[in-house]
Each structure stands twice: as C-alpha cells, then as structure tokens.
Specification:
9% strand, three-stranded mixed β-sheet, 2 domains, 387 residues, 57% helix
Length: 387
Amino acid sequence: MRNKVNVLYYPDSLCDLLTLKKAILFFDEIHFMDRPSYSFEGGIGTIGMDSPLRGWEEKFRSDGVPLFVHKPVSGRVGGSFQDDVAADINDLEFLKRFQNGLMRAAAFRDLQIQHGEYGDPLSSGVTRTHGEVAAYLGGVDVASISGSHSDSLSLLTDPRIPPYALSDPASCAKTLVFLAATCSAKMSYALHLSGQHGFVPLADTIPYGDLMGAKYARAIGKLNLQQIPLTDLTFAIFDELVSSDRLAGLSMEQVILYRTTSESAREAFLEYLTVLQSRLGSVGTDEGYADSVADLVRNEVMPAARKFTNQLQAIGEQLFGALAKGAMGAAGGAGGVQLLGDISLETLLALGAATAVYVGKAAIDAYIAQRAAKRECCLSYLLSLDP
C-alpha cells in the first residue's frame, strides 16, 4: 500500500491554472498557503495576503477534490528559521541558482519580482519597471556579493543599505539577497510542514527544483530528503506525455470529473512513480537536479510509455482492420472511433442499425484488449486524457 501524496504548493498563494489541473489529476490532497508576511532584522520585509482559493475550498472538497488553504507563520524571521534561511543565502551555489532562475525563467521571475514600478530610495523621482529590476539583479557578481560584510545575512540585515537603490552596487546586491531570502523562507517553511504533516513540497518552475537540489546537497544525511520529490517526477512525466494544449482544453469541471471517475488508474500511476522514486537513489552534488529528473524520465518512463502506445496501436489496427473487412466500410469508415477513449453511444448510433451488431463485437474485442494493455502499464492514466 503506497503512502498518500499530499502536496503543498509553496511559491505563492495561488498557482497557474495548468498546475492546479495537474495537481487535481495526480495527487491525493492539495494544500496551499496564504502569502506570508516575513520581515528581517534591519527593517526589510514582505506584505502578506489571503489566498484567492480560500473562497473555493469547500466547493472543491464537495466535488471530490481534497483542497485546503493554510495560514502560514508570519512575522520576524528569527531563531532556527533564520538559521535555515541564512544557510541558503550564505551558500554561493544557492544564490547562483536563484539569480539564474530570475534571468532564464519568466514564471519564476514573476513570482519573485511583482509587476509594477519600483522607486529608488536614493534618487527622488526615479522608478524602474519589473524588467529593469530583473536586469539589474542579473548583473550582480554573486561571488563577491557580501563585499565589506562577513556574509550575505549581514548584508541583508544592515539598515544602512536600502534595497532597490539599484544604481548602488551594495543596494543591488542586498536586493538580490532579500528576494533570495524570501524565497528561501517559503521553501524552508514548506519543508518544515513536510516533516510535520507529511506534505510533499510542490512547485511548478524548474528553478525551484534547482534551488531544492542545492538545499538537498547540504541536507543529505541530516533531513533524510535525498530522493527527488515525487511531485517533480509526476510533473516531468506529465509534461513529456501530455501536451499543455490538451490539458488547457479541459474545463475545471472536466478535470474534476476525470479524477473522480478514474481513481484506480490514478492509484496505479502513483504506485508506479513510488517505485521509480525508490530506484532513483540520492541526488549527487555533482549532478544537476533537473538533469536527474530528465534522465529518469528518459530511461525509465519513456520506454514503458512507448510499450503502452505500441500496444494501443496494435489494438487499433486490429479493430480498424476488422471493421474494414466487414459492413463498416459501407457506413463511411471508422474515423469517429477514438483509440484512447471508449466508443461513445453517439458514435454507435451514427453507424446505423445495419452495422451495429458487427461493430459491437469488434469494439468489445478491442475494448477488452485495450483494458488488458492498460493493466500492464499504468501510464495509461496520462495517455488516456482526451477532451
């Protein structure tokens, strides 16, 4: 019996609609947090807000999707919580990965730097856009980021240096450290809840995986987090096998209906991923986190998916070949029959009474063969998604 996969989305209080659809199709429970309000010594901090999903919790649960929104701990970051954040921002590798994420991933950048105009506290009347702030931060030399300070935490908590005075190198460096510290605080809190409640931290842009990999490299043997999270595997597989366009074409009602009517397939899929996760082993410090996931998908998942696809193709050829030899030809062909779905009542009615008996036998034979193939490869849960 597998452990339940209860995920906690931590980048923000609301995720992209595609991410929410994926989570509904995959996971046992889906947890969100309100946006926390964090402050650091020196007078710098963030503003919290309730998650927009708060008003939809009961609706989702009544429809069969266990979705919950939690209030995070907010306020001054201190004690062991500050120690966790300090370990990240004082880690050169963590800062490099954070900076690279800002430069290369628009979705990640938008989560760290809200769209708007940013005033310069040292230059009256000067404002900078979201994109200009990102460009300044991309130019920071993270190797010498602390400058005259002993470490990045000392720079962050120095009240003499204001953030967002981006023409000043020290301020620019502090701004990058502040954003990285806020991101680290959310990640660290998600990991804390993971250990406390059994949640799996969930994010939906590659830089978060890279940052988690940097944390894991330090935590191996200490926090027992050496395996790639199940969420990263499931999303990597989903993105490989099911196009976002197909998923975007499904309404939220259709996604929820698919979940509630395919519980056994979802169970088999998660069982399969649990096996893959146990075979992965530890994430080495010399190997890229995202590359580790990609290798596993390429070497373990795709061969199984190809096997299942070939089985379906053979079943389809058997069905269509049989129909072509019989009375079906007179009805105009079998183009309306969907290989990855059951033959609909509308399709059977359209074939006409004269061919219904023949088509029914062929369809039933193919249906049985298709179900047998699906039992052999639970990746069918993904491949059978069809609006």
